[in-house]
Amino acid sequence: MGLTTLVDTSAWVEYLRATGSEVNLAVRSLVGSQGRAIAITDVVIMELLAGVRVAEQREKLWALMNRCLMLPTRPLFDYEVAAELFARCRQAGFTPANTNDLLVAAVAIGKRVPLLAAGTDFEKIASVSSLSLASA
């Protein structure tokens, strides 16, 4: 997929809240870039929309999401990969806090795109899989 980065919900939240974190700045750079594609998946869209409280925010969020390359989950296949990732994490002594993260990781692995995220759960998932993490 070339210069494409899948952006996780956690990274979008950093960006939308303008936290000034490294992840926030990385998403801002991607949003302003002409040569890089920002990818999103249905799970991330669902999580972002679930957090919207005002209709005006929903419209702005949809406008932003519509600029992204959609990488939808593949029914059953990505879910099976996510379940396998969960099992690998458990064998390594780590239980992921959010199973949606496993599904996002499965999409990134399947599409062979790096994932930009905040937090450490994805680092642990990457340690037991072929998940590639984008640097912030």
CATH topology: Rossmann fold
The CATH class turns out to be: Alpha Beta
- Please indicate the count of domains: 1
What structural category characterises the helix and strand content?
alpha/beta
Tell me about the largest β-sheet. Answer: 4 strands, parallel
How much helix is in the residues? Answer: 40-55%
Oligomer: single chain
What's the SSE pattern? EHHEHHEHHEH
Q: Measured on Cα atoms, how large is the radius of gyration?
A: 14 Å
> How many beta-strand segments?
4
Write a concise keyword list for the protein shown above.
single chain; alpha/beta; 136 residues; 4-stranded parallel sheet; 4 strands
Account of the 3D structure:
The chain has 136 residues and is an alpha/beta fold. The chain is built from seven helices and four strands. It has a single domain, classed as Rossmann fold.
What's the arrangement of secondary structure elements?
Blueprint: E1 4-7, H1 9-16, H2 22-32, E2 37-40, H3 42-50, H4 55-65, E3 69-70, H5 77-91, H6 99-111, E4 115-116, H7 121-127
Parallel strand pairs: 1-2, 1-4, 2-3
Helix pairs in contact: 1-2, 5-6
